[in-house]
Amino acid sequence: MTSFLQGNTCIVGLQWGDEGKGKIVDFIAEQADVVVRYCGGANAGHTVRIGSEKYSTHLLPVGIFRPHIMNVIGNGVVLDPEALLKELDEFLGRGLAISPANLRISYKTHVVMPWHKAEDAFREKAAGADGIGTTQRGIGPCYADKMHRTTAIRVADLQHEQKLRERIDRICADRNKVFAALYDAPPLNAREIFDQYRDFGRRMLPFIDDTTHLLFQAVKAGKKIVFEGAHAVLLDVDHGTYPYVTSSNCSALGLYTGAGVPPQAVKNFIGIMKAYSTRVGGGPFPTEQANKIGEYIRERGNEYGTTTRRPRRCGWFDAFAVKYSVDLCGVTSIALTLLDVLSGLDQIHICTGYRLNGVRMESFRADMDMLTDAEPVYEVMPGWRGNLTECRRFEELPAEAQKYVKRLEQLCGVPVSMVSVGPERSATLLR
Ligand code: GDP
Ligand code: IMO
Ligand code: MG
Predict the structure, then answer these.
(1) Closest CA to 200 of 85, 118, 72, 93
(2) pLDDT digits (tens, 9 = 90+) for 108-158
(3) Is the pTM of this model over 0.70?
(4) Between 399-412 and 319-329, two packed helices, what is the crossing angle to 10 degrees?
(5) Which of 24, 38, 156, 354 has the smallest C-beta neighbourhood within 10 Å, fewest atoms?
(6) Catalytic residues, which ones?
(7) Is the CB of 18 within 6 Å of ligand 1?
C-alpha cells in the first residue's frame, strides 16, 4: 500500500458524526503503531467491516482489529466500564486477541456511573420537545461531574476500594435527594453500585496505565500514532451547533488535552466527510431533506444509528458548514465516504452558503438561532448511475461522480486524498 502516514495523524469527522471514521481509521491503521481515542464515550458508534464480519465499537479504539497496534483510551474519554467490558467480551468471544499487550486505559479517564445515565434520561424526559436527543449514555452528566470535581470518579479511584466505597456512599446520598426532589425517582442502592464497580475495577486493573507517559515515549521513538476522533466538529461543545452538541471537545482541537500530547506531535489532520449530510437527535440542519430524497439516502446509506438505531436525518452536502470545520481543525487532507450512496439521483445539490433575511452570510456561525432561520444557497450538479462499490481507481468512477468529488474538493479548499465507495476495507480509492 502507498505510504501516506508520514508523521502522526488525527482523524476527525467534519459534519455531525457517522462520517465513516471507523472505516477510515481501520484502513489507515495498517500503517500505524498506536491508535488513541481522545474524547467522548459509549455515545460513539464506529463500524468496521472486515470481509463478512461487521464490528461496532463504542469505546475500544479501532486499532483493536490489527494485532500489531497498541490501543489507548485517553484521559479525555468518559468510560462506562459496563459498556467497555461488554464490548471486550463480545470481541474476545469473536476471536480477537485483546490484552494489556494491545490495550491501555489512562488512569485519568473519568468513569460513567449509574447516576450519570439516570440523570441523562431524567433530564431528556423532563425537557420533552426541547431535549437534545442524547444517546442517554450518561455523557453530559459525567463531563459535568468532571468539572464539579468533588462528585467525579476516575479510573484510578476504582483501585482504592475503601475510599471508593465512601465516595459512592456520599455521592448516592446527594443524588438520591436531588433525584427524588426533581424527578420523583427511587433511591440508588449505594451498596450494589459499589460491589459492581469494585468488580469492574478489578477486571480493568491490568489495562490501567500512565498513557501520558506511554504516548511521550511513543512520540520520542518516532512511532506512528493515529488519534481516532469520535463524533465530529459540529457536535463539539465549544465550536459545534450548541446546545445541540455532545459534551466533549470532539473537534481535532480536543486531542491535545484528551490524549495528552503537545501540539507539534501531530502533523496530519484527515477530515472525514460523507458525500451528503446526516444528523441524529435534535438541532438545526439547514440542508435537511425531510422528503423522498432524504428517504432515498437513508435507505441506500443504511442511515440508522450505530449506537441507538435511531433513523438519521439526511440532507444535501453542506460545503459552507464543512469549510468551517476544515478551517477550524487545520485539515490537511480529506477522506470522502459513502459516495456510492448517491448513485441513481438525477441531480445532486451542494449547499455553498446561507442567506439570512435575504442577505448572504459571510461566514458559518455555529449559532442555533441563525442556523434555524438560515436558507441554504444551492449549486446543482448532474447525478450518475451504476454501482460504484466495485470501482478501485478514481478514474473508474462515472465522469459525473468524479466532477462531484472535484467540486467538493474545490469548495473545501483541501485535497480529497481518499474516496470510499463501500463499507469494506478494499472499497477505498486513493488519489
Ligand atoms: P462513524 O461513527 O464515523 O465511524 O460512522 P458509523 O460507523 O456510525 O456510520 C458509517 C456507516 O457507513 C457504517 O455503517 C459503515 O459501515 C458505512 N460506510 C462507511 N463507508 C462507507 C462507504 O463508503 N459506502 C457505504 N455504502 N457505506 C459506508
Ligand atoms: P460517532 O462517533 C452521531 C449526538 C446525539 C445527540 C447529541 C448529544 O458515531 O460519529 P450525547 O449522548 O453525546 O449527549 O448526545 O450528540 N451524537 C452523535 N451523533 N454520531 C455520534 O458519534 C454521536 N455522538 C453523539 O445523537 O444529538
Ligand atoms: Mg457512528
Answers:
(1) 85
(2) 999 999 999 999 999 999 999 999 999 999 999 999 999 999 999 999 999
(3) yes
(4) 50
(5) 156
(6) 18, 46
(7) yes
